[in-house]
Amino acid sequence: MSPNRIRIPAALAALGLLTAVPVASASDGHPGTRHVLLISVDGLHQTDLAAYVARHPHSALAGVVARGTEYTAARTPVPSDSFPGLIGQLTGGDPAATGIYYDATYNHGLLPAGTTSCAGVTPGAPVDLTEDLDRDQTRLDAGQGLSGLPGSVLGMTGVPQTLLNQAGLPVDPRTCRPVQPHEYLKVNTVFEVARQAGLRTAWSDKHPAYEILNGPSGTGVQDLFTPEINSTGPAGAGDWTTDNAATQQYDGYKAQAVLNEIDGFDHSRTRRSGTPAVFGLNFQSVSTAQKLPKSGGQAGGYLPGGTVPGPVLTSALDFVDGRIGAFVAELRRQHLDRSTTIILSAKHGQSPTDPSALTRVADGKLLDGLNAAWQAGHPGTGDLVAASADDDAMLLWLTDRSPAAAAFAKQYLLAQNGTGTDSTGAAKAFTRSGLQTVYAGADAARYFGVRPGDTRVPDLFGVTQYGVVYTGGTKKIAEHGGVAPDDRAVPLVVSGPDRDARTVTGPVTTTQIAPTILRLLGLDPRALQAVRQEGTRVLPGIG
């Protein structure tokens, strides 16, 4: 979780009752597809993939593209962040359907974490589905208590909900019980539909809070491997994201889990369970290489101009290519290459790619100023900002949800000019709080396609000027979570048996991955609630 996200306790939204998940009926799947391996290379842009394949025509990534349909105009949901990005891929829905706008948000209808006596408690609380929920955030096993870490991490449980600190979860006022991450998701997942059909499921990701992927039933992912990326890293200083070599080591554990699953074992390789029908992982190495100014004494990010990767990012791309090559080779060795479709994409991109465009803005100072101005004009009131998520967009939840309060916040922010820093740390001026457009109150709800007063939607959504990253320091040169093309223009390739290379240049969204997975497996895409709600289509060219 980014250190610049501010959460000030104040108020959270009630969970709606979920409708029953319909039974998935068989449909025409792709002949021979019995397994779908989904790979999210977080931060990867479509331009990165195209350039890498051009420079390395014999690489594993080039092979994946050569055996598949490549969608060159794919876009992620907004905000383009990890939770809405991956959940979109696995439900078929945008935040309006899923209720998931970020990993750390706010809900005006739930009660604060730790509430045990709910009568008379004013609703409103943070929903923090990050590493903060771990039983022990400092440990790679999130507090499970394994000896011999980090090497023993593959012995981590595949049921990470057991590693969550229940006192950190918001409380449902109707039951006065903590709301589990999977209960907070409003729609079902690909994993749940697959399990209904008697198929095996697995996934590997970066926090135990990814238990949300289990879906409302709580049983979607049978083997969920979630080593904590924000735990203390191997050097003992900083977490696994502060050095790209450490991030690659971390990703290596998840890649080994996938190799074990290809071989028919669970992620730990201690129990034979059969190769999953739906499985996969996310890679973090590219994302951290894009964000770090330096790592191992070398420059992170892209070279001037923003198209050629620097040395750290080049190393990360080569690492990911090598791991994907290992997956392909193991599928072939296990005679699964003819029955497995690989889908390659990314939860999000990263912005800006061009280092000269970077403007770092200290959002904490902006929000402190907003709260002070509100209190000055409204004596006796508390802070106006209940919670925020600011990376390269601004999401605010307000304690006062009146039109007047929304207008006040918008006007204040658009009037703020100041000085931030550029990619070298030198002073760089900014205007309008670094914002290009601000949607506040009912306009914010309409922007996301929900009704005004929705308990989860941000009360203010700010689209940043290109290159603006909200951070009080100089530890990162790019971020994600916004709407810029650098955030949203990610690769999407469906590669598998009997597929010839094909390029689709028309616009598609990564939410179309979910119904496509089901179609490939011969299951009904309309078994997904978000697919029915939003009319999400199977990707073109998938028969």
From TrEMBL:
Signal peptide residues on this chain, from the entry's feature table: 1-26
UniProt keyword annotations, A-Z: Signal
Domain of life: Bacteria
InterPro entries: Alkaline_phosphatase_core_sf, Phosphodiest/P_Trfase
Protein name: Type I phosphodiesterase/nucleotide pyrophosphatase
Native organism: Amycolatopsis mediterranei (strain S699) (Nocardia mediterranei)
